[in-house]
Automatic annotation (TrEMBL):
GO terms for cellular component: plasma membrane. InterPro entries: AAA+_ATPase, ABC_transporter-like_ATP-bd, ABC_transporter-like_CS, ABC_transpr_LolD-like, P-loop_NTPase. This is Cell division protein FtsE. PROSITE patterns: ABC_TRANSPORTER_1, ABC_TRANSPORTER_2. Signal peptide: none annotated.
Amino acid sequence: MIRFKQVSKTYGENLALRQVNFEIKQGEFVYLIGPSGAGKSTIIKLLTREELATSGQVIIGNTDLSKLKAQHVYKLRRQLGIVNQQDVFLENRTVKENYQAVLGATGVAETEWLAKIKRTLDLVGLGTYLDAYPRQLSVGQKKRVAIGRAMLNRPKILLADEPTANLDPKTAIDIMRLFFRINRQQTTILMATHDSTIVNTFMRRVLELEEGKLIRDQAAGNYNVFGNPNDIYIL
């Protein structure tokens, strides 16, 4: 599903990634951890083809992203759902209208919009919030709407960048349960996080970066990823 083969990325003289190798299979849930500047955001940018690797191969499915023509990048991005740390909405539009904007931009037939929107809101547990405005939602509900927006076109891969940041512990756990529900539908999830409690509680495979190097690829098991419970990466 996702393969990094000897991937390096430089920005001027700064080496952001150093010969990174890993493979993520369809349906896996993988945490991507590491301190600020370790290369987590760079990996996500390479996967969305926002940027190209300096050397090596980034492959999704059977597609080598370095060989993907610019006019076909939109097809790649339709396979991806992206959840960012900050949830940005059209504040003067309802949840339904925010979703319609995404569906229109991705070329989905207008006759399919309402069914997709209702099905997605049911998935994220907000089936009755079709006509709600973002300002009427709690922080946790906004995160659910953002996850739903990423899932509108049922992507094969969901990329989540610090999705539990700034959430209280109960809300963070609820959001993780939603991610696992999505993952059980065979959606591959790569989640960048520095939340030690989440990683140590909901054990899944871990990829750890440090100064652009992949220093750990650890399967789910009985572990304490961050060692000391107080050893939390500050971003």
